[in-house]
Write a structure and sequence with these properties.
Elements: E1 7-14, E2 22-28, E3 31-38, E4 41-46, E5 60-62, E6 65-67, E7 74-76, E8 93-94, E9 96-99, E10 102-108
Antiparallel strand pairs: 1-10, 2-3, 3-4, 4-8, 5-6, 6-7, 9-10
This protein binds FE2/S2 (inorganic) cluster.
Length: about 120
């Protein structure tokens, strides 16, 4: 299916690349996007922490959140909200579409939103 008017779709990876309970870093137009699979529910967030530059795939999935390995801020994968200091800004969250065995995101046209 085509993207809605005013939006764009990016094909990130195969669903098989991200088994339940795991994550995978993908790249979209020079930005990192983290795909996670929580018991079959896929989420996509910015791949770099909103506190300082640190890749979140080096962190830990903890329930429905991810913990950044550098200063241990935790973020909700559902909302992107920062749950623990020192990070204050939320992670940008991208709507996920699973189609024909692929994980895609559909985002507004223009630069990919990233909070830093
Ligand atoms: S870089 Fe992630 S919490 Fe500091």
């Amino acid at each position: 299916m085509a993207a809605a008017p005013g939006s764009r779709r990016f094909d990130l990876c195969s669903v098989d690349d991200v088994p339940p309970g795991t994550m995978k870093m993908c790249e979209v137009e020079d930005e990192m996007v983290l795909v996670t699979n929580l018991d079959g529910r896929f989420h996509a967030t910015q791949g770099v922490c909103s506190h300082q530059y640190f890749e979140l795939d080096k962190g830990f999935l903890t329930g429905d959140s991810i913990t950044c390995a550098l200063h241990l801020s935790r973020f909700s994968l559902e909302t992107g909200d920062s749950l623990d200091p020192p990070a204050e800004l939320p992670l940008a969250v991208y709507p996920v579409i699973v189609e024909a065995g692929r994980v895609l995101i559909e985002v507004a046209s223009g630069p990919l939103e990233v909070n830093r």
